[in-house]
Amino acid sequence: xxxxxEIRDLRKIYAIGEEPxxxxxxxxxxxxxxxxxxxxxxxxxxxxxxxxxxxxxxxxTSGSYLLDGIEVARRSRSELARIRNQKLGFVFQNxxxxxxxxxxxxxxxxxxxxxxxxxxxRRARAxxxxxxxxxxxxxxxxxxxxxxxxxxxxxxxxxxxxEPPVLFADEPTGNLDTKSSIEIMNLFTELSNEGITIxxxxxxxxxxxxxxxxLVMRDGHLIKDDGGRGATALPVGISAGGAA
Length: 244
Ligand SMILES: Nc1ncnc2c1ncn2[C@@H]1O[C@H](COP(=O)(O)OP(=O)(O)O)[C@@H](O)[C@H]1O
Ligand SMILES: [Mg+2]
What we know:
This protein has helices spanning 47-54, 77-87, 103-114, 119-132, 148-160, 178-193, 205-208; strands spanning 5-14, 21-31, 36-41, 62-67, 70-71, 88-92, 166-170, 197-201, 213-218, 221-225.
């Protein structure tokens, strides 16, 4: 069977200072269509590096990465950009919305680049997506006129614009209060139930608990993978601060 994501012996070496840093030190893993995966671990353990490579935002130093059966480990920047635009959605801790641009225009942006829809179909889809995330009345608001939780919902609508089969999220609730965090995670749960694959980085146990499968990283290694058998309860000892 073909996996949605298959990485083999992935390494990412940063050689900035005197000592090279192995942000990823030989990680192998498969993720299937429809999974809801949390990548956990302490700060500096390699979570973002892993997510950025899985999301084709960055390339590994060595190792292989098959996305939907296609080798993407050594593609050019422009090829990766095309793959991202067609297949992947992103949600970041800082929302990454364009500041002087309305909510609806932010949501439209991925199709503006892809050019799959005409102008009016694009507007209609963006409007429907804003409705979908509970922001139907806020299309003309700019990010500064929205709360953090609302900005993140705009970012999720934007991530869904091109109907990607996979959604990547890096600490999506990292800048949100508890109430907004729960709303965002309930939205992720709904999307997961609709069949979208979600790969989410978090260092918080209560956020990771929304995922069905839990990976734990330490020092560039994958040290735990419950394979989705953890349901919503995390095994005792898997914690953000210091994975056991
Ligand atoms: N662009 C970079 N240049 C140099 N070192 C980096 C860079 N990005 C990450 N690192 C290093 O790689 C390791 C893993 O970082 P990261 O993937 O951001 O971890 P996490 O997201 O788990 O906090 C850390 O030691 C970090 O300092
Ligand atoms: Mg990080």
